[in-house]
Amino acid sequence: MLLASRRARALFPVVVALLALGVGWALSVGLSGYTVYLAVSMVTASIAVLGLGVVTGSAGIIALCQLTFGAIGAWVVSWLNVQEAPGGFVLWLVAGGIVAGLAGVLIGLPALRLRGVNLAVVTLGFAAAFDVLLVQTQFPGQGDGITVARPAGFTNDRQYFLFCMIVLVVCALAVYFLQRSRIGSSWKAVAFSERGTAAVGQSVRLAKLSAFAVSAALGGVSGGLLAGQVGIPYASSFTPIQSLALYVLAVMSGAYLIDMAIFGGILWILVPELLKRWGIPQDWGFVVFGLLGIQALTSGSNLGEVIRGVFRKRLRKRQAAAIAASAAASEDATTSALDAFAVPEAAAPVPADAGPVIEVRGLGVQFGALAALSDVSLAVQPRTIMGLIGPNGAGKSTFVDAVSGFLPQHTGSVFLDGEDITGLVPAARARRGLRRTFQQDRVPPQLTVEAYVRFVARRRLDHDELADALAFLGCPPPEEHLTNVDVGTRRLIEVAAAVLSGPKVLILDEPAAGLSHEEHIQFGHRLTRIPSRFDTAIVIIEHDLDLVRSVCTEITVLDFGKVLAQGPQQEVLNNPAVIAAYMGDAEISS
């Protein structure tokens, strides 16, 4: 049943694409001439909004110059048409998309350092500057009245509409598969947390620039289609105010959802057309889009989420009986998962002379006059679990940030499996086998559990292996959407994903936060199986000393940024200095 369901999901986009092409053919035959012209405009607008859905909806980047990329695509198509370049309109359209994509990368470079309003100003400034340039120079062939030649076999409006539908379907399928790829997951991850993205080995720079490139390329394709539609494009079709309105429309419609991006493109043409028929100036359409955008921003939900929410509620009601029926089998599934995570018989023992898998020497971090860490050193042996504990403000989180690369300005050195990684950025450290989790929620809610785990693991995972790992840690099934999962469970999913990446060292920063005390202990029992199963060492930061006692053989205690005690568990916990440092802390008063 599960295999059939997965195959159905794989075939679903292809079936939808074929249906869309069938609808496009039927409309091209049945619609009137003017309606066909409007339909072409809706298709071109849908592709532009689809691009905004990538950069804004998925990657969370403000980009107010989408129609400027459309102008670039239209300019390239017009220039190649004037030059009578070989290949015809189809190749010209592809070239326009590529050039626009390259322009998107250049404009995306400021996004690596700028955010929010500052980035909005940069993109809107680019749109304004390019608009002035277009007005002054015009499009190629505009002065001589040279119209863009449409592709062979699609010369009249009805045929050209079908061609545009084919392009829309190709673009939508490309975005669909990109969104479900690793790069698509990186867009959603970087929108939610750049630190969380870097911590799993994904380049934040690549995620942002790829989102800009894909979005701009789609904008360029949209502009190229518009050039073929009107014959001679004009700068008035690509003004900055239109780019701004299109951005608002994308936010309002929830354009990261492909169907809602197409719906947004329809609204882009339909609203002004209705205003025109009602005798209202079409510019009032911008006011309508602005009001809808304000409502979406203030309410925190867009039209796509509202519509999807209605269908999900109905679907959950239908699934309630199935969930209740499967609850009885969950205990057996967990037992099976526990067996799957048992230590393999063939696992080779750690050599007696093996060096530490991670070693920190003389680590120091200074914030102005405050010494957050001072000469901290520790070593963790292979397949062991070390506890890093200390009172609030002892420097534990600072230590983790420094070791994982998020605080590069520090003294001392960090060695991973004998390699000095002190100068590496967080993503590079993660790719070499140093993984960490966070106290705060860093799990992007737009993904499914399976998509997130595969993104973090950075390797091919068998579906059964993935499901076993999730069941082992008490996580939801792979098909569950993370939007439906509470924060505490998302933290367990974060741990499961990090474990499946097979790291040399895994630093868990309060991984059981949000769980009950009993769940803490149960989590610790399962945690003890992980080092031998995945040949990894674990450093766990935790305030619950019952959990620390149940999993850690070695403990390092920090106090005021210095190592207070270090060694075997009982020896450290019975140290009078450690007891004094924790005096009054309710969590260990027992």
What does this structure look like?
- By secondary structure, this protein is an alpha/beta fold.
- The protein has 23 helices and ten strands.
- A six-stranded mixed β-sheet has the order 6-7-8-3-9-10, sandwiched between helices. Strands 2-1-4-5 form a four-stranded antiparallel β-sheet, covered by helices on one side.
- Helix 2 packs across helix 10, helix 3 crosses helix 9 and helix 16 runs parallel beside helix 18 (487-500).
- It starts with a helix and ends in a 9-residue tail after the last helix.
Write the layout of secondary structure elements.
Elements: H1 2-30, H2 33-58, H3 66-82, H4 88-108, H5 116-137, H6 157-179, H7 182-192, H8 194-199, H9 204-230, H10 240-253, H11 258-277, H12 284-299, H13 303-340, E1 358-367, E2 370-380, E3 385-389, H14 396-403, E4 411-416, E5 419-420, H15 426-431, E6 434-436, H16 449-457, H17 463-472, H18 487-500, E7 505-509, H19 517-527, H20 530-534, E8 537-541, H21 545-551, E9 554-559, E10 562-568, H22 569-573, H23 576-581
Parallel strand pairs: 3-8, 3-9, 6-7, 7-8
Antiparallel strand pairs: 1-2, 1-4, 4-5, 9-10
Helix pairs in contact: 1-6, 2-6, 2-9, 2-10, 2-11, 3-4, 3-9, 4-9, 6-9, 7-9, 10-11, 10-12, 13-17, 16-18, 19-21
Q: How many angstroms does the end-to-end distance come to?
A: 50 Å
State the low-pLDDT regions, or none: 319-331, 584-590
Mean pLDDT: 84
Strand content: 5-15%
Share in helix: 55-70%
User: In this structure, how is the largest beta sheet organized?
Assistant: 6 strands, mixed
The dominant shape is elongated
Subunit organisation of the chains: single chain
Number of strand segments: 10
Report the structural category: alpha/beta
In order across it, which strands form the biggest sheet? 6-7-8-3-9-10
Supply the number of helical segments.
23
Radius of gyration: 28 Å
